[in-house]
Amino acid sequence: MRQLDFMGKRRIAFIVSIVLTIVSIAALAILHLNLGLDFTGGTVVELHYAVAPSLDDIRTLLANSGFENFQVQTFGATDEILVRLQQTFDNDVGNQVVSALSSGGAQIDLVRAEFVGAQVGDQLRDQSGLGMLIALAGVAVYVAFRFQYKFALCAIISLGHDVLIVLGLFALFQWEFDLTVLAGIMAVIGYSLNDTIIVYDRIRENIRLSRSDDLAQIFNEAINQTLSRTLATSGTTLLVLFALFFLGGDMIHNFSISLILGIVAGTFSSIYVAAALLIVFKLERQDLIPVKKENVEGEEELP
Amino acid sequence: MLNRYPLWKYLLILIVCVVGVIYALPNLYPQDPAVQISTTNGSLDSQQLDRVTQALSDDDIQVKSAAMTGNNTALIRLSNAEQQLPARDVVDNLLDNDYTVALNLADSTPSWLTSLSATPMKLGLDLRGGVHFLLEVDMEAAVKQRLEATASAIRADLRDQRIRYRSTDVDDNALHLEFANAEDRDAARAQISQTFNEFQFENRDEGRRAFLDMTLTEQAIKDIQDYAVQQNLTTIRNRVNELGVSEPLVQRQGPSRIVVELPGVQDTAEAKRIVGATANLEFRLEARPDAPDSETETFPFRNDPQRTATLSRDVIITGDRVSSASQGFDQNGRPQVNINLDGTGGSLMNQATRTNIGRNMAVLYIDHSTETRTVTRGGKQVEERIPTTSRSIISLATVQSALSNRFRITGLDSPTEASELALLLRSGSLAAPIYFVQERTIGPSLGAQNIQRGIFSVIVGGLLVIAFMLIRYKAFGVIANAALAVNLVLLIAAMSLLGATLTLPGIAGIVLTLGMAVDANVLIYERIREELRRKTPAQQAIHAGYGRAFTSIVDANLTTLLVAVVLFSIGTGPIKGFAVTLSLGILTSMFTGILVSRALVNLSIGGKPVKKLWI
Questions:
Q1: Tell me, what DSSP letter sits at residue B301?
Q2: Which of A46, A180, A229 sits opposite B523 (nearest CB)?
Q3: Closest-CA residue in chain A for B534?
Q4: pLDDT given for residue B572 in this prediction
Q5: B82 and B17, same structural domain?
Q6: Are A204 and A147 within one domain?
Q7: Distance CA B431, CA B228 (A)
């Protein structure tokens, strides 16, 4: 089978990764995430019009009815309208919006109305950040326990890299970041980790089997051996995600985007970042082969 | 060498699969839109049911079946979901107030499945339509209310013991009593400290004034808050049941929040009014003309704010002592509420009225409400809540004779108000005010659309994966696809068994699981291919492939499971649904990917001397 020299090109991969990470951090710092209702608090009302309306008419109608600080946009189709309100929810704001808008003679159905208190949003934001950190820490402990701390460190860096890039792209394109996207990113952590562990597992196995000290060569072999698996699994997962993206409807649109981006980034990082970092962190054969075990084997060979 | 499993392994796998199929089956039977009738104090029989079905068919509403489901409940299944709302209105108009008519989705699971307690998955609000509320219990108010009640009890106690006090005062976590001199205070302290041991007592002197400070202990505050949330939970549950919603969810979330989910409800305004209502009653005697100001309070009348009456500060009983209440009319056709008190309430009322015949007793209507407004403070938007409590007298009448545990109150504006008050008295009052901090209303059309799209993407995603596996792994692809199908069945069975709620992100989780579930098989097959390239004999290659891939599969899946568990613990509602699906999917895919696919391989070619593998 053809061997691709992944480790030889690791410098290029590092540059790509670093550039992407910097762009992501810059996007997050300058543009910020376009946080959804779940995190900011506020009110969203989704309406279905019998006939596609003009957005300007809606804005005028709402302004005339005394609403302030609102945004009007189409949601999916031109006859689906999303109205965002900053004002605090009072009893039945959904119906108020409907009655304000139908005063223009349009036929409207209330599809959904959501209200989130600012306090709940703040709390959720803290909780989500904390949850992500706990997940990463838990993963690090597990990998350190099953492999070795250098593996844990590299796995965490590569996971952080994936999460940062997805977040950065969401900030860059100002896609709405809501609770489902958060769930998507957590799933990306799980998925990308899955990939990384498979590569690490092979690296560990090959280091134990081989007598060579050329780690780059061993890594290359491990990556090549797992490459078809990595691509096959990413492939099937991407297939179903595209099915979700195109067919799943608007409510999980951004969720699918986050997963698609995350899986592409995760596949890349488990090939390049996670393994190549092990070289940077100077992984050695001794890190994986317990001294005691070698002695036992040595004794067996003596007679 | 040959690849064989011992018989018990095959049997075990077979049993798991059969159980999986049985418990996944109920999901294939669609739920019927239905109207549920129940009654608490009326009677319901099949004749009445016939009358109802007749009325429905007169209104061109197609009834699929109508049956009694219990002594006092009946279920009318409809053929058409769009006729559910009109059907409810027809039934509601036909029956009087004693009956509760609710929208329902009735399972059509065959009885042999129900007898195995196999039930379909519950659908989340985003798939079914309905209202979701998140309520916050006002903890400070809970403590304050308790302090005020304690103050009232202490005043009564001190008066009984003839210990003179000047005033009682309530602040954050403490109660301050003022006495004329230190002797009175010491006597009071000796008297009170036995009864109220949840307080820390401290003497304080300011000049010639003697104070007794009673501070609640940390534990007592925690207990009070916990009690408040529990009590509110019970009350809200009672109220939601009165609303006649089928399968409502009322659940505590975190230390101070309560989630309420009402599937099928579209009228949020009514639901909010009933769930969040804080109206309560207090019965007090009118103050004697010579009573000192510190013992009296003046309130306006509810239907004539100009008129006022001065009442004693001491409460005889509150609405919490009401055991049942119903709305009715007096001789003049004015609305009234008939009240039955519980044992303690009855004797308290009897005691108070027996010794006070000829005095006036007032019924005080209390309504706590809060206005929430967003203000900008220090460049940051903050929500500010201004609690207001309105107390007004709804009736003031002379006590003619000692009252017992049954009586009626009048002075209400309308029959609606009377029946709402009766409902609130029946379901109990809220132990502390609540605020709505989150609300979601999902229309039924959106729910139906979400299900449709969800199922469609599961099918398309599944087919794509199946095609991919067939092309890539040929004969082994068939085995992987069989394992995938078993996986889907087991996942659905596990979700149904655990009573998990299916949400839209949950469906996304299933789709994602489908994509990732083949991973175990991909790993194994790639290993087998590798072995074959090294010219390992076929059976040995299969053995080595399954053996070597095992640790990778376990390591990779356990870490993903870890992340899913974290997601479950921080997530709420739909996100929890996603985490549950993901976790269950990881477990079932490990089972099917490793055991089921191996069993299939062993069964089909494991016992034969094969030369070449179609992989």
A1: B
A2: A229
A3: A1
A4: 66
A5: no
A6: yes
A7: 5
Contacts of A93 (CB under 8 A, 6+ apart): A43, A45, A85, A87, A113, A115
**Residue A224 burial (C-beta neighbours within 10 Å; 0-12, 13-18, 19+):** middle
B522·A201 Cβ contact <8 A: no
Tell me whether residue B210 is in a domain: yes
Binding-face residues of A in 81-120 toward B, CB within 8 A: 86-89, 91-92, 94-95, 109-120
**Shortest CA distance from B442: residue in chain A:** A112
Domain range enclosing A217: 7-35+120-290
Instruction: Say if A210 falls within a structural domain.
Output: yes
CA-wise closest residue to A197 among A252, A247, A140: A140
Q: Which tokens is B84 given?
A: 């559910």
The secondary element (H helix, E strand) that includes residue A250 is: none
Provide the number of structural domains found in chain A. Answer: 2
Say yes or no: A18 and A49 in one domain.
no
* Same domain assignment for residues A104 and A129: no
Whether this model's ipTM surpasses 0.85 comes out as: no
Question: Which of A252, A255, A257, A260 would you mutate first to test chain B, the one with the most B CBs within 10 A?
Answer: A252
Contact A201 B551 (CB under 8 A): yes
Domain limit, last residue, from A70, A100, A116: A116
Instruction: Tell if the CB–CB gap between A240 and B383 is shorter than 8 Å.
Output: no
Is residue A300 situated within a structural domain?
A: no
Residue pLDDT, tens place only, B553-602: 888 888 888 888 888 887 666 677 788 888 999 999 999 988 999 999 99
List chain A residues with CB under 8 Å of B562.
135, 138-139, 142
Average pLDDT in chain B: 83
Q: How far is B243 from chain A (nearest CA, A)?
A: 18
Claim to verify: residue B12 and residue B38 sit in the same structural domain:
no
User: What is the tens place of the pLDDT at every residue in A31-51?
Assistant: 988 888 878 778 888 888 888
Does A233 have pLDDT greater than 80?
yes
Residue B440 within any structural domain of the chain = no
- Do A177 and A238 belong together in one domain? yes
**Sequence-ordered list of residues with C-beta below 8 angstroms from that of A231, at least 6 positions apart, any chain:** A267
Q: Does A240 touch chain B (CB under 8 A)?
A: yes
Give me the CATH number covering residue A267.
Answer: 1.20.1640.10
3-state secondary structure of B119: coil
pLDDT > 70: percent of chain B: 94
Q: Is A99 helix (H, G, I), strand (E, B) or coil?
A: helix
A135 contacts on B by Cβ (under 8 Å): 562-563, 566-567
Tell me if B461 and A239 make a contact (CB, 8 A cut-off): yes
**What confidence category does residue A291 fall into, taking pLDDT thresholds of 50, 70 and 90?**
low
Domain boundary among A58, A93, A116: A116
Q: Is B128 a member of any domain?
A: no
Domain region containing B206: 139-220
- Average of pLDDT values for B453-478? 90
Q: Indicate the pTM of the whole model.
A: 0.77
- Best of B457, B473, B526 to disrupt the A interface (most A CBs within 10 Å) is B457
Q: What is the pLDDT of residues B218-249, one digit of tens each?
A: 888 888 888 888 888 888 888 887 776 767 88
Q: Which of B569, B446, B457 minimizes the C-alpha distance to B513?
A: B457
Let me know if residue B229 belongs to a domain. no
- Residue in this structure with the two tokens 């929890």, named with its chain if needed: B576
Tokens 């009766």, residue located: B422
What residues 443-482 of chain B have any CB closer than 8 A to a CB of chain A?
443, 445-446, 449-450, 453-454, 456-457, 460-462, 464-465, 468-469, 472
Q: How far apart are CA B16 and CA B22, in angstroms?
A: 10
In this structure, are B209 and B310 located in the same domain? no
Nearest CA in chain A to B560: A190
For residue B584, list chain A residues with Cβ-Cβ distance below 8 A.
none
Contact assignment for A237 to B512 by CB distance below 8 Å: yes
Q: Is residue A297 part of a domain?
A: no
The minimal CB distance from A142 to the residues B457, B562, B564 is found for B562
The span from the CA of A171 to the CA of B518, in Å, is 33
Alpha-carbon Rg of chain A, whole angstroms?
A: 25
